[in-house]
């Protein structure tokens, strides 16, 4: 093969896969599932410099902790460092915008949570298009939230908390990682299903939110178990329920909210995306690295010890379909609750 013909072939491959990556996030996933996970030789040479993994929240939360556990071994798989960069604010919008404005070359990754691409589009006017500006790489972890109160709150379970909120409308507050974050929407769904009024107190990340619960400035939080773990162990917070359909193995004595409110369930997903237009072979290369990392027993153990949700690697197409379903589900909750940012 001549040098020119090789370049032409690469351009054809790249052009085809750029169009494909733009369809993966919220459309066209079914057709893409049939595509083989083939990574051409030129994409195998990627990366040739360090990558950025942007976490759109301040340090100290569950997303930040999981990102740092995944980043180092991912860098080892790729042969270049993966540097975690925290850009918190506006419910994840600031950091997400940075990825939307980055070159479509695979060197800038978005560490996503429910807010940036699932709930925020239903809440506010965004400086990016959640459906068109990103291409999925892989699901990272999938789990549930823990509902925990300050140690002096008299409620020992969900029923008692509901009774407290009904006796004192608006006096029971809950901290979240920001407007539109999963921790915000979980609280809104609880208020809707229990028919109570709760006061929402948004922060710029989980770390700040749960610290104020531990300090007694906010009644409770419904958020990731990992960052709560040391505060629960220290006795500053008390877990009274989990949002999963079944009890969490890590907290077998803590009931589900669904045991009090039948059918209540809130799942949590964290994932990686890149800028749309990134060549599909590079997305596949990144996906392969993530899958290997999350299947590594040592990484699994580190995630478990950190209180993270269970690792759940996926194909880009599977993640795209999941984001679409989650967006539809939470969009309906947001509309029914009349939630607006700002």
TrEMBL record:
InterPro entries cross-referenced by the UniProt entry: BUG, Bug_dom1, TAT_signal
Matches recorded under Gene3D superfamilies: Bordetella uptake gene, domain 1, Periplasmic binding protein-like II
CDD domains, alphabetized: PBP2_Bug_TTT
Transmembrane segments: none
Matches recorded under PROSITE patterns: TAT
Pfam family, one: TctC
Assigned protein family: Belongs to the UPF0065 (bug) family.
Name of the protein in question: Tripartite tricarboxylate transporter substrate binding protein
Organism: Rhodovarius crocodyli
